[in-house]
Amino acid sequence: MPSYKIVFLGGGNAAGYAARAFVENGLKAGELAIVTEEPYCAYERPALSKGYLLGAARLPGFHTCVGGGGERQAPEWYSEKGITYLTDSRVTKADLANRTLTLENGEVLSYEYLIIGTGARPVRLTEFAVPGAELGGIHYLRDVKDADALVAAIATAKERAGKAVVVGGGYIGMEVAAGLAANGLAVTLVFPENHLLNRLFTPELAAVYERLYDAKGVKMVKNARVVGFGGVDGKVSSVGYTDATGAVHQLEASLVVVGVGARANVELFQGQLEMTAGGIKVDGQMATSVPGVFAVGDVAAFPLTSVATGQVSHARQEHVTHCRLSAAQAAKAILGLSPTPYDYLPYFYSRVFALSWVFYGEAPADAVKVHFGDMTEAKCFGCLWLGAGGKLVGAFLEGGSADDAAVLKGAVAKGLRLPAEEGGLGEAVVGSGAAVVAQLKAKL
Ligand SMILES: Cc1cc2nc3c(=O)[nH]c(=O)nc-3n(C[C@H](O)[C@H](O)[C@H](O)COP(=O)(O)OP(=O)(O)OC[C@H]3O[C@@H](n4cnc5c(N)ncnc54)[C@H](O)[C@@H]3O)c2cc1C
Questions:
Q1: 378 phi and psi angles, rounded to 5 deg
Q2: What's the gap in Å between 402 CA and the centre of ligand 1?
Q3: Which parts of the sequence belong to the FAD/NAD(P)-binding domain (predicted)?
Q4: Which atom of ligand 1 is nearest to the CA of 50?
Q5: Half-sphere exposure of 349 (CA within 13 A, CB side)
Q6: Closest residue (by CA) to atom 31 of ligand 1?
Q7: Is the C-beta atom of 90 inside 6 A of ligand 1?
């Protein structure tokens, strides 16, 4: 039975960053094996809904760690470092008591330390028995295989002047709708909320992006619930939805992309590990309830301190920065470097058309929201969320530089006090985005 000191189960985005951290901290050849069901070594998954749909990103160009400003780790990188990368290798059983993993082909691996990075999978409408949800032409986007299928479907839809419908107004829905529109398709974005990215955007922020989608020819159907799909010869031809009054409508569609959330891949470990918040419960070293077993990335529910309340609760974060940092944290813990407990400031980013935004912290509904910058021209604008006592708990910026983003991050991490009654940010609040960033910088 092949035996390794460390096995990384998952081999996705986090795996590349774990491998880098191991190598930087003294991993010896032969000690690490990475096992993934995908046919590729780790890559920067966010590219799939952005450059990949535009033909700009293709492997090996976006292997980790290029997204984090590091070296591009193509397959040769792993072999040079003495790391075994088992691709096309689905793990069907994890026996944590005996420290073994069984692969689909029956092979069994043993380990001393295990890092679980099995990520998440898209929520499928078939799970809710939505009529017609099993038809061909309905796409989900998680890996290169999905992205290749979508790129091929885009080409076919273009040839036939087909119409596309995107279900879901969150990150994936917004990015995919932008990608399809940039490919010249007629796109309708359908979602149940009353504005885009309801989880984060204020109505004012959403309005800026909605104007952009409108200008790009993307139609939006809000307050709409998809209730079924019509098909011809096993292939989708229409999307049925109900509006706020319950009336049913149909949209023509030869291509559908669904982005309605994700679920962590935890099934292999049910009954063996403590679970919480839809994921595997870990501590500040990314260690699970079983000694020697760690979990990182999308699958890990880790202690997260609320910027707004200071309370700590276990949470999952499906974001690439967390996957990178948590992977490095687990690697250091396994190497006995006793890293300081994981201290993560939530960070989200997205790019649609020529726009690009960042967000740090939290966006509680009861916070005071202070918008700033040029929202009419959609140039450099944003929003600050002020919690109790005027404490800055969340900051959003569109169109800023990397230095500006660092200022926002620092300001939220520090919990700057910007009480409205003391003038807050003064004139800058109604001034330009650059002026607000400058004021925040001056207060750091
Ligand atoms: C289309 C898309 C766009 C995104 N855009 C952004 C963005 O703009 N910004 C942002 O912050 N985040 C974004 N994300 C989220 C980000 O990509 C994830 O947070 C990140 O990939 C998580 O890394 P991970 O290693 O935990 O999981 P993953 O990268 O999903 O890797 C998990 C791996 O485990 C494999 N696996 C699962 N089960 C098994 C098994 N039983 N046996 C073998 N292998 C298995 C999977 O096939 C996969 O390769 C995006 C995600 C997607 C899908």
A1: 55, 45
A2: 24
A3: 4-311
A4: 3
A5: 19
A6: 12
A7: yes
The domain spans of the chain are 3-120+263-334, 125-260, 354-443
Q: Two tokens at 79?
A: 């072999």
Give the fold, CATH level 3, of 354-443: Enolase-like; domain 1 (3.30.390)
117 lines ligand 1 (CB under 6 A): yes
Amino acid at 44: E
Relative orientation angle of helices 320-334 and 13-24, to the nearest 10 degrees: 40
Pocket test of ligand 1: the residue of 54, 319, 359 to mutate, having most ligand atoms within 8 Å of its CB, is 319
The tens place of each residue's pLDDT in the chain, 444 residues long, gives 999 999 999 999 999 999 999 999 999 999 999 999 999 999 999 999 999 999 999 999 999 999 989 999 999 999 999 999 999 999 999 999 999 999 999 999 999 999 999 999 999 999 999 999 999 999 999 999 999 999 999 999 999 988 999 999 999 999 999 999 999 999 999 999 999 999 999 999 999 999 999 999 999 999 999 999 999 999 999 999 999 999 999 999 999 999 999 999 999 999 999 999 999 999 999 999 999 999 999 999 999 999 999 999 999 999 999 999 999 999 999 999 999 999 999 999 999 999 999 999 999 999 999 998 989 888 899 999 999 989 999 999 999 999 999 999 999 999 999 876 544 565 555 568 888 899 899 989
Write the burial class of residue 366 (CB in 10 Å: 0-12 exposed, 13-18 middle, 19+ buried): exposed
Sign of the C-alpha dihedral, residues 196, 134, 180, 151? positive
Q: How far apart are CA 386 and CA 370, in angstroms?
A: 8
| 3-120+263-334 against 125-260: fold identical | yes
Residue of 118, 141, 282, 302 to test ligand 1 pocket, by largest number of atoms within 8 Å of CB: 118
Tokens found for residue 308? 């707004």
* Homologous superfamily in CATH for domain 125-260: FAD/NAD(P)-binding domain (3.50.50.60)
Q: With a 6 A CB cut-off, is 118 part of the ligand 1 pocket? A: yes
- Spell out where 106-156 has E strands: 108-116, 120-122, 138-139
Token pair in block for residue 95: 């026996």
- Locus of tokens 């009529």: 131
**Closest atom of ligand 1 to CA, residue 35:** 43
Q: Which CATH architecture has domain 3-120+263-334?
A: 3-Layer(bba) Sandwich (3.50)
48 in contact with ligand 1, CB cutoff 6 A = yes
